[in-house]
Amino acid sequence: MFEPILEAIRRHDRIVLHRHVNPDGDALGSQIGLKHILRENFPHKQVRAVGDGAGRYAFMDDSAMDDVPDAFYEGALAIILDTSAAHLISDGRYALAAATARLDHHIFCGQIAQAEATDTGYESCCGLVADFARTCGLRVPPLAAKSLFTGMVTDSGRFRYDATSARTFELAAFLMQTPFDLEEIYANLYASDYEQVRLRAQYALKIRFAQNGVAYIYTTLEEARALGVDAFTLSRGMVNVMADIRGVDVWVNFTETERGVLCELRSSRRNINPIAVRYGGGGHAKASGATLPGREAAMRMLRDLEEMGEDA
């Protein structure tokens, strides 16, 4: 699976790493991790990372993106990480590259790159990149190991989600052979300031229960503006306020923004991905997302989630 990717890397002296917009720990971790693996093992190559800002993951070392001119793409290889669809790629200039490759663990929605290594069996794209390094015999420097481990932790829910497997722990052990500060990772990921605790409490009071084990939160544009918090924090950051509630199998967080309603869908046991795909989104079987044009479409999605529960 990895040989075509490795061969493409060997053939190109300029490499640009892309990932999805609004990056999470896995997107940034795979990007930063692969960047430093390539620099360690191919020091003569020019390796750059591009995309929008790191947001709450700006604590990750080397999370600031590189300034890459269009001319850099001439004759270059663009590697797309942790992205299931072309419209989700941050920085569309990957299309300017001479060659493209992709490493991804999302449900396959269609080919994006010329060389692809996609496998939903990995709990994270960081796990996939770690296995790429291990399988290909590439050295993993400390910053790469730390970044990849961070992404594995975030996308596996601290190794709780059912995508976690024996291989997950094998790869985590492989990364931990290179020393890095675990306490620093967990402190940055899970320590909360008072305002975050207060926000989560407010969102707990917003939870509503639909039929057939479905819970939801709906935040209007006016409410979002009044909270004074970025949309990513309100949508993806607050969705799991509804997790672990007895009797709730599916939960969805709707957040109105200027460009539409952000929908974060989660499930403890059902495959909600087809519904996300139906509304133009995607992701994983139990964690997906989509952006809808308005509240009416969001309520249709909610009804679809309720109806799915009727067959459970």
Automatic annotation (TrEMBL):
GO terms for molecular function: nucleic acid binding. Residues 236-307 form the DHHA1 domain. It comes from the Bacteria. Transmembrane segments: none annotated. Coiled coil: none annotated. InterPro entries: DDH_dom (IPR001667), DHH_sf (IPR038763), DHHA1_dom (IPR003156), Oligoribo/pAp-PDE_c-di-AMP_PDE (IPR051319). This is Bifunctional oligoribonuclease/PAP phosphatase NrnA. It comes from Candidatus Onthenecus intestinigallinarum.
